[in-house]
Amino acid sequence: MLGLGKKDTLLLLLVTALTLCAPFLLNPFPVNGGLAQFNAGYPDLMQRFVIFGIFAIGFNILFGLTGYLSFGHAAFLGAGSYAAVWMFKLLSMNVLPAILLSVVIAGIFALMIGYISLRRSGIYFSILTLAFAQMSFALAYSVLTPITNGETGLQVTLSDPRILGVTANADGSIPVTHLFGIEMRATEVLRMGAWEFQFSAGYYLCAVMMLLAFYLAIRIFRSPFGMMLRAVKSNQQRLYYTGVNARPYTLAAFVISGMYAGLAGGLLAAMDPLAGAERMQWTASGEVVLMTILGGAGTLIGPVLGAGVIKYFENIFSKLNENVLHGWFAFLPDGIEDVLVAVIYPFVGKGWHLTLGLMFMAVVIFLPGGLVEGGQRITRLFRRGRSPEAQRRRTPAE
Amino acid sequence: MEAIILQTLNGLDKGSAYALIALGLTLIFGTLGVVNFAHGALFMIGAFCAVTLQRILSASFVTLDETRTDFLGNPMKVETPYVEAWFGPELGGSIIEWSVPLAILFSIPIMAAIGIAMERGLIKHFYKRPHADQILVTFGLAIVLQEIVKHFYGANPIPTPAPDALTGSYDFGVLLGFDPNVIIYPYWRLVYFAFAALVIGAVFAFLQFTTFGMVVRAGMADRETVGLLGINIDRRFTIMFALAACVAGLAGVMYAPINSPNYHMGMDFLVLSFVVVVVGGMGSLPGAVLAGFLLGILESFASMTQVIALIPGINQIVIYVVAIIVLLTRPRGLMGRKGVMED
């Protein structure tokens, strides 16, 4: 179907089903129950899941396929956000032109940075991209203030022209982002007994975009172009000796992944018309690296998985505080309860970064293939002994 | 002329910090071939060694002074640091005051222990893995170290003053025949520069004039041959890692009075230090030091008002621009050796 193999079609259908049913799947706990804080099915967080999923899918096209580790991808996300907000300010609050422009701007930006950075490989490439991203960040904060509005961040205001839209609503409020009239913040709430499910227009727009991005990524992975990128990763020297210039391929991969980042930035701005320079900071670039590695670099589903896990931790685990923990362990004797809470507390709430760091280190050390490899190992454990054929196939031909 | 001297001086202290961190990075890279993203965290831990020692020294007990009363009419509570009780107020007071310089002694064993633990416990297993993996695992380690420090010391910067005797400024202009108050420079920054020069000199002397250093240099040049000669080069490289950690830690200890330590100060310095290493040439120790000072001074020149008026925003990006130009025109950096990291 759609030019995909049987396995890929299955994967795409699975991801489609999961994203479309996400409002149900992410809200498994009753609203008033004690576990309600683990519900992730509210629009804001769901949007983040898919938007950062797009960002990570794009990053994976560069890092997973070619092995070039960019530490400056957040610059493209930031550029996309700025472009989208400017579209909202000048043209109209319709998200479509904004998203298109953010992809184009990020693509051009990636072309410029990639053209220079890709002259070097390995650690030099990482540092060049890092330098460019930090430079963009510093410029956005200082000299480019007329474009980026400096520290305050770029916002839509009541005095913007908006040629095709309205400057202000009839009641004097700032118009909201919409897609041909469907407001992005519109949310339907469905109550079923003790459960509550939220369906937001913004989420579904992002979800459709992610599915498109995911489909495109599968096609790239399976195309001759994707094979070429893998060849760059496994042995660039050999490619040169066979008379292939790898640069155009890596540059194309860099630009594509930059455009993915731009799309993510545009969507972020479409959901909430704000853009700040901190989106370009290198810690933001580090985050997408974490997502991709955690999920599994070079795999299709890995980056999405990693983005989901990290965003879930960031929003849900960071809310746990000492009282919640005491509530959980209340059934234990007092002494044990206090000890348990004291042990667990540094890892949740404000300290969730610690858990993230430890988890990331564990993945890099023990599971270089990320969560996906973990899953594969577990399934293999169950299948062991049944098919010696599969066992033999595991050793790749070098 | 005054402006040039002043900016050069201003650049020295930042340049010293860059040079020290970059020196440590290069030591690790040159010996073990590992790109250490956790080096900034080591710098940060050094600064927190100074904070810790200051806290330990000012640990105090409370006594009730019956002769005086506080505003509620209760007997006044007087806090006396233990150190003052043991050594008398004179000596005890100055010990507390000089806690930052004293932290140098305190931090060396700690940093060495952390360095050895890091190398033996983690980095050792990553020699054969690709550079990307090394970057990633040390990046993760940096996050973990940062969060541990944040857990114990909180997220706010902790002011760590220098001794009173060194808090003033020195009027350099008078010395060189300019008008007074034209070129003034804080004492502590002078101390920092002198300290950095001393540490750098010591590291170079150690590598150049001792047998141990000679073996290490031989190992940097050709690890395999040194190993074949029956020398346990791994153990020596572990010690070099500990040395690099100490250098970063010392840079952090002495930097505490200049910039109140907070948990992410390491990351801020790390990015710049990597740029410094690349500009200086990966694996070249003199290159790292030279580039550190050069970039520090360049940065301070770029923040002169006249320069900013000419090219707005240049002070923010000058280091990166220089790095990009150097990488594209001289890929090996200013003093890079052939064959290092050229894949």
From TrEMBL, chain A:
Keywords annotated in UniProt: Cell membrane, Membrane, Transmembrane, Transmembrane helix
Protein name in UniProt: ABC transporter permease
Claim: Transmembrane helix is one of the keywords in the record: yes
InterPro entries per UniProt: ABC_transp_permease, LivM-like
Transmembrane segments: 49-69, 98-116, 123-144, 201-221, 248-268, 288-313, 325-348, 354-374
Membrane topology: Multi-pass membrane protein
Sample GO molecular function, one term: branched-chain amino acid transmembrane transporter activity
One of the record's GO cellular component terms: plasma membrane
Residue stretches in coiled coil: none
PANTHER family associated with the record: ABC TRANSPORTER ATP-BINDING PROTEIN, HIGH-AFFINITY BRANCHED-CHAIN AMINO ACID TRANSPORT SYSTEM PERMEASE
Automatic annotation (TrEMBL), chain B:
GO biological process: amino acid transport
Topology versus the membrane: Multi-pass membrane protein
Keyword Membrane listed: yes
Annotated compartments: Cell membrane
One CC-aspect GO term: plasma membrane
Key words, A-Z: Amino-acid transport, Cell membrane, Membrane, Transmembrane, Transmembrane helix, Transport
Listed Pfam families: BPD_transp_2
CDD domains: TM_PBP1_LivH_like
Residues spanning the membrane: 16-35, 42-64, 98-123, 190-216, 237-258, 270-295, 307-328
Gene Ontology MF terms in the entry: transmembrane transporter activity
Protein family membership: Belongs to the binding-protein-dependent transport system permease family. LivHM subfamily.
Protein name according to UniProt: ABC transporter permease
Organism per entry: Roseivivax isoporae LMG 25204
Top-level taxonomy: Bacteria, Pseudomonadati, Pseudomonadota, Alphaproteobacteria, Rhodobacterales
